[in-house]
Amino acid sequence: MGFVIPRAAFNQIIETLARRYRLYAPVRKKGAGRFLDTDVIMYDEVTTADEIVFDAKSDYAFKEALTPLSEVLFYFTEATTQEASFDNRPLLIFARSCDMHALKRLDQIFLENGPEDVFYQRRRELVNFVLMGCANSFDNCFCVSMGTNIAPDDYLFSVDLTAEGVACNVQDEAVAALFKAYGEETADVVPAHVTENKVKVNLPEQVPFSVRTDPLWDEYTVRCINCGRCNFVCPTCSCWSMQDIIYTDNGNVGERRRVGASCMVDGFTDVAGGGSYRKKNGERMRYKVLHKIYDHRQRFGINMCVGCGRCDDVCPEYISYSNIINKVYDASKEGE
Amino acid sequence: MGHLDINVGKLKKNAFRYSKVRGETASRVRIPGGVIDAASLEKVVEIAEKYGNGVINLTNRQGIEIPGIDLEDMDKVNLELQPVIEALNINQTQENGGYPASGTRNIIACPGARLCPFGCYDTTAFAQKVDKEIFPNDRHVKVAFTGCSNDCAKVRMADYGIIGMTEPQYDPDRCVSCGQCVDFCRRRSVGALTLVNGKVVRDTQKCIGCGVCVVYCPTRAWTRSEEHYFRIVLLGRTGKRNPRLAEDFIKWADEESTLKIIKNGYAYIEEYIDPNAVEHKEHIGYIVDRTGFEKFKEYILKDVQLSPKAEVAQNIYWGGKHYDSF
I want to staple A237 with a disulfide (CB 3.0 to 4.6 A). Which of A231, B80, B267, B317 is the partner? Predict the structure, then answer.
């Protein structure tokens, strides 16, 4: 069902929805950037539409709603354990097409890869989506190359801010009832999507083993500073580490926590006995890139990368991951 | 050339240099904060080519000196300088009269937050703001602004050195114990951070508010405080008798108090300056050496309302090399 409604009416709908759902959307965090007076757009709970940033790509991804950066799983003392409290109110996440495709990858990783991950699953069951249309491609996006520029259908409604008003394709009956209170149903509204990005990548069908030892990775041993920003902003990176914490003032009490991990950051491959693998940053880059465009596909049939370009947006060393994909493509052809 | 009859005192107070080359002077172009628009710089070039010897000196305090100017051309140079003075928003006592004084020196600023990743405030803007408040003034005062504790502007050699600070804000829920803040604080700063049970503990006594943790945090667990803070260091100096670095006065000062403290110093100078000082100029530090720091402190803190966060030094003891006594 299509609706084109005034912004004021849209704002009221959002406020109504905020009473039914926890709304989770990209917001501008003023001054939260690395440098003075620089903002960061990241996800947070909102209660009004005006808080939501529609005209820019978020720097950090929605995934934090499903895989928090730091989460206490349970507390333990002597012979007892207690699960940490959990907010089980339904969530409504504002996301773009690439992000919704990323959800499919997260589902594969957490739900279709051996036993289901209950901590992911319990959140996943609460999640609903609002699709934010993309009238234009943002910097570094390459969703068209990745085939993620058109969103999957499982959203409650879409949002496009147009000159005529807020255009929404409403797919959920309950939400449609809400929209009908503010305006007549119009002809079909198709969520805006981009058909071309400035950045294009060529994806190798097969990556011969020779690419894994190709000198192309050496450059990144020098340039990459293994800060892991590319992982932390990525909507599909979801690795985590487990931490058992013993409280300092009482050694009989503690908590188990899981926190985000990055395959670029030191310590990721540390194993018992002092072993550590992929010590060079170029090796870490190889592992990450091939995981995104090859290894995940080998197991799950689709590429892990969705082409949102956030890794390129955030890299402090101006390393372009999309450019690396093209280098891998060229090296793969040579290696055939 | 007619007979030269120049009032040297007036010349100096009009921002011209007494040159070793007889009959010549140099025009001193004050540039608060060291930022000049390209059009004004072109004008400076024009003056150097028309009245000077085609050479431009970049001064130690981010100003410009145009040497090789005939003493008889000073009025003409002042006229030519007018658009520059207006573009730089310099307080002027007489239109077309050039720069009005040279006692209080050009205010230095590092590039600060306009360019530098580590800058904790807009150094240029603060320098320009203070310049509007204290210039022109015949008293010999040096003020310098630097964006962070790196002190690229070498403010510890000024009477008032202002060092930018941020109070790091920590969100443990966004922290994944990657340890980069701890590592970089140790390697690039003072080592005020430690990981305890997977979260970061900041030693607030040790922390110098440089913001290195904020710059290196990959998840935005560390962010800057909304407030800009300053460390005020006092009475550093170069020179013959007792060159020394400035010492810490206030940590976590606010902008308004900082401005007030700099302004307040002038009343102290008027009261206690050596009446026989050469050219009526005396570094404040030497006056303080006579009166004691307590008296100076009383003057500069007059009507200053510091926030409870500000840590004020009870007393200050300067070091440095004493060439005047053994």
Answer: A231
